[in-house]
Design a protein that fits this description.
Chains A, B: This is CYTH domain-containing protein. The structure is a homodimer of 156-residue chains. The first copy, chain A, is mainly β. Chain A has 3 helices and 9 strands. Chain A has a single domain, classed as Beta Barrel (Hypothetical Protein Pfu-838710-001). Chain A has an 8-stranded antiparallel barrel. The model of chain A has no long low-confidence stretch (mean pLDDT 92). The interface between A and B is medium-sized, with 21 and 21 residues.
Chain lengths: 156, 156
């Protein structure tokens, strides 16, 4: 149980892929995509997770978050009763000074969308911006994965 | 992960209390009360649980269910972001032949409502009906705890 402090950005080009330390296939669905209480089921490679998030504060930077690892078979069964629409993406991990950017490249209904996230210790913590980092979209709910299920990028 | 097979009944009188082997205080809220995918947070005495249920089949007897025990502090924090309205009840456990009835006496907005549940191995399994057992309400969604949050007994 913790407050999650993170900032989100669009990405200008593919250069981040050359800097990636690793990448993972992620499939996820939502049991609840209501912003005040999202409940997410996720499969990352052969691991399963359930994650619950509250709504962000005014700046959208801090969100209440709770996560537990669960059996991948359980996660796959829970995905079956999730809301219609599933997020399918590859996550790239890119080191930048003492931070790690997580860059999500979306497929399917969200094909063409790429979002970079950085987790911070405090809302005011500074960090180096790589040249491929684009416009900040922190707190804009249409970029939440829970929103992308109902209103995917190709409909924007 | 399992199919939960259970039948629900109203209760005619207080006689069940004399037969109870134990009773527990239960507080619970819902992160999602959508019948297709309810996500329940529960505190029973000093234990916490997260439970996910799918919608019932046509008869309402079988429902997909997944449950994990979690820290009680985590459960109390998750209750804070649940949908408005919380269920407060005492559960009585009553042995009857080789089955156990769970009888819930509700308080607060649902004061006056008492529901007995019995879990079965199959939909056709028979069982002895105690004299205090009333009308069957299996599959009637307004008796689901997830419905009682939004449309409590005192409004019926």
């Amino acid at each position: 149980m913790a407050l999650e402090i993170e900032r989100k950005f669009l990405v200008k080009n593919d250069a981040f892929k050359n800097e990636a330390l690793k990448k993972q296939k992620i499939i996820q669905g939502f049991l609840s995509s209501v912003p005040e209480r999202t409940v997410r089921i996720r499969v990352i490679e052969n691991l399963g997770y359930i994650t619950i998030k509250g709504i962000g504060n005014a700046s959208g930077v801090s969100r209440f978050e709770w996560e537990k690892e669960i059996e991948v078979e359980e996660a796959l069964n829970l995905l079956k009763i999730c809301e219609p629409g599933v997020i399918d993406k590859t996550r790239y991990y890119i080191k930048s000074d003492n931070h790690t950017f997580e860059v999500d490249e979306f497929y399917g209904e969200n094909n063409g969308l790429i979002i970079a996230e950085i987790e911070l210790i405090s809302e005011n913590e500074t960090f180096t911006k790589p040249e491929w980092l684009g416009k900040e979209v922190t707190g804009i709910t249409k970029y939440y994965n829970s929103s992308l299920v109902k209103n995917p990028y190709k409909l924007w």
